Amino acid sequence: MSVARSVLADQARSVAVGLALGLLGARLAAPVLGRFVFGVGPSDPLSFAAAAVALVAMAAGAASLPIRSAVRTDPGILMRDVR
């Protein structure tokens, strides 16, 4: 289980950094981009929250394959291949 936790922690760090930078960039670009989007305010918190939730959900789905692969791999085989 510690292998899964390690892979998930790596993914979580990447998602957190990407989410923080993306939200900051979106907040800075909102006044300019707000002219092109109709019906949504430039600083609509619901839109920002929905985008963040969607990103986290996609990242969790993307992390499931490496986690499954890491958990199913025999540690003995991995130790033999390391030289």
Describe the structure.
By secondary structure, the chain is mainly α. The chain has one domain. The chain has helices at residues 2-33, 45-72, 75-81. Helix 1 runs antiparallel to helix 2. The chain is elongated, with a radius of gyration of 19 Å. The two termini are 25 Å apart. The model has no long low-confidence stretch (mean pLDDT 82).
List keywords for this structure.
single chain, mainly alpha
Whole-number average pLDDT?
82
Number of strands: 0
Order of helices and strands: HHH
* Total helical elements: 3
Q: Give the termini distance in whole angstroms.
A: 25 Å
Helix content: over 70%
- Point out poorly predicted stretches: none
Look at the helices and sheets and give the structural class. mainly alpha
**What is the total number of structural domains?**
1
Sheet with most strands: none
- What general outline do the C-alpha atoms trace? elongated
Estimate the strand proportion.
Answer: under 5%
Brief account:
The protein is mainly alpha-helical and 83 residues long. Helix content is 81%, strand content 0%.
Write the layout of secondary structure elements.
Blueprint: H1 2-33, H2 45-72, H3 75-81
Helix pairs in contact: 1-2
